[in-house]
Amino acid sequence: MTTVVERTEAPSTTRNGRGLLGLLLVAAPVLLMVWLIMWPIISAIIGTFWIEGADGSHRLSIESYAFFFTDQYSLDNLYITLWTTVVTAVLLLAICLPIAIYLRFAKGALPAYVQGLAIFPMFVPSIILAYAFIRTIGPNGTVDIMLNAVGLPKIRSPYLTPWGPVIGLVWDHIPLTVLILLSGLGSVSTQSVDAARDVGAGRLEVFWYILLPRIGNSILVALSFAVLGIFSAFTLPYVLGPAAPEMMGPFMQRTFRDVGDPLAATTQAVIAFGFCIVFGIFYVRSVAKNRGGAR
Amino acid sequence: MKRRELLLAGAAAAGATLLPRVAFAEANRIDVYTSSDANITDFWANTIIPGFQKANPGLTVNWVDAGDGAGLNAIGDRTLAAFQTKKDPQADYFESYDPNLPKGGLEAGLWTDISKAGLSNYSKVNPLAIQTGFDLPYRGSQVLLAFDTTKLPADQAPKTWEDLVAWIKANPGQFIYNRPDKGGSGGNFVRRVIHQANGKDPSKFTTSNYTPEFGEQTLTPAWAILNDLAPSLYEKGAYTSGNTQSIQLLAQSVVTMVPVWSDQILQAIDQAVLPETTGLVQLTDLALCGGFSRSTIPVNAANHDAALKLADYLLTEEVQSAILTELGGFPGVSWDYISEDLRNKFADIVPKTIPTFPGGDWEKAINDGWYRNVAPNIDRNA
User: Domain A70-294 falls in which CATH fold?
Assistant: First the structure.
């Protein structure tokens, strides 16, 4: 995640031997990626178009995709996944940006504790998180008990509604988002903020004209990571979410194992991949832009 | 140089983990696969496994949780594939499985005919529980309705389907069942509705009579009944994601009534997860589905003899009494082989009939049909 702000030297190409060694060094991870990631993706895409019939013969067809995009149930599931992704991403930014700015500019001992607290969710497995949420904000949970103690009405619990996974996913993704934004804010010099203050800029103006232009890239990277994580989320939507519509993660798993329809499950996976790759491209472009600028 | 050596050693170790490993079943270790809930795992870990290993020194039991029915089917498929290629299936014993699965397995001779395997205790098995010789019914349980007697007095509890529907509609938000693929309590509630929609005749459904047309014809009216109930359920049509979560909602006093497995609820009351004021009721017009858990043993099991010894041990009075007292299930042996005081104590929960529902294609059709036709019917704005 720190690659965004890294300023690497252009590799030396003076001697052929060193170039070759470099290539050999990257060969292992690249081959591993081709074998474990690229190849499965390619075979999945081919497998959904080049369909194997019951008698073992193959034919070229888009029927699997045609079914997905004409099936209201599948479309509802895709829609709820996109909705959850957008809402969670917006909430994440709204929560993490103030935390990151505070951590960047605050002085003293307190920010260390705030940072510790913000990173804490990283160490909590999501299945434990899910059951903890049922206990606290679930029906008749801790929050309800406390509200009841002071004579207030119960909350309308988000458990088993689309808001359940949203709350869980926001909490789960806070650490990574804060860390990425914080690394982006590291490139903003304190002097530039002070200079702006000296000429009379208020808090909002400092944020809008000084901070935001510098960390735009980090925001994009943080969003890409969050979106990729949310799109493929499984545990939290499975335990906290409603029975229907399902998010793509539980939907794929159920189609594959329960319904026993690997073709439909692969098609769903390819469609989910299609959405994710857009954000992947954002990320790669922003990294490439950074590298290019450093030369 | 030291750093480089360390890196090389690390890379070699990492590489070694990527090499395909050839695994074999360990001698005298019985690999038992299950998809049952945690209470069954506890029962095996605390009662059956220690008792068996004590009675049979040198043999050990390796308890493997396959997760859910689909997970166990994958192990079944693997066992059949190993049978056809004459390899070691690495599975010796299926704690609860259907010998009609995987497709073609029974015809190919995959499963051991336990009735002819010479078990010393086989003659004790309850004749009513025997379906084929290829499975061993060693414990039974059934889905009941559990309710909170502080909110619904036991004498007013619904005892027929019509009463139940009337009660659910009169008390909106007080009933919930789990998604049918995530646990048998909700699954068998849905099956009870399917029976209701088809003349309360369980014999209409068999393992082999599923066709898409017959499924459509029999399931569509059941979806109509469930959709009619949905607005009166918890949150106007929410469904928990498992047996345990339903019990949790009952325990947190969120709902008044949920369908539950008899063994799970008796254990929950016993462990004070649920209070003594929890009531249990079974519908009298047609009971909710239940059945016997049937163990199967593949003929190609590497530890076949040991697996048969385990099967024989399960039928001993020691285990069968513990199924009643510790698990809250029904014994798989005839009641004559259970001690007299236990027989009297548990007379109430002993079922008179246990309707069943076939698995296989029906299960897929019911689960996916429910997700498509019933689950989306929820009005969140109301």
Answer: MetI-like fold (1.10.3720)
Q: Is B251 on the interface with A (CB under 8 A)?
A: no
CATH topology of domain B140-289+357-373: D-Maltodextrin-Binding Protein; domain 2 (3.40.190)
Contact B241/A at CB under 8 A: yes
Q: For A149-173, write each residue's pLDDT tens digit.
A: 888 888 888 888 899 999 999 999 9
**Nearest residue of A to residue B378, measured between CA atoms:** A244
Interface touch A161/B371, C-beta < 8 Å: no
| pLDDT tens digits, one per residue of A73-91 | 999 999 999 999 999 999 9
- Contacts made by residues B201-208, CB under 8 angstroms, sequence distance 24+: B202/B286, B202/B289, B202/B355, B202/B356, B202/B357, B205/B357, B205/B358, B205/B362, B206/B358, B207/B98, B207/B100, B207/B358, B207/B359, B207/B360, B207/B362
ipTM: 0.74
Q: Out of B68, B245, B368, whose CB is closest to A259?
A: B368
A142–B contact, CB cutoff 8 A:
no
Chain Cα centroid distance, residue A211: 23
Most B-contacting residue of A257, A261, A268 (CB-CB within 10 A), to test interface: A257
Same fold? B29-134+292-345, B140-289+357-373: yes
Residues 6+ apart with CB under 8 A from B160: B283, B284, B285
Q: Which residues of chain A lie closer than 8 angstroms to B366, CB-CB? A: none
Do A239 and B241 make contact, defined as CB atoms within 8 angstroms? Answer: yes
What fold characterizes domain B29-134+292-345?
D-Maltodextrin-Binding Protein; domain 2 (3.40.190)
Least confident of A53-57, A109-113, B6-10: B6-10
**Domain definitions of chain B by residue range:** 29-134+292-345, 140-289+357-373
Whether the pTM exceeds 0.80: the reply is no
Q: Does B360 touch chain A (CB under 8 A)?
A: no
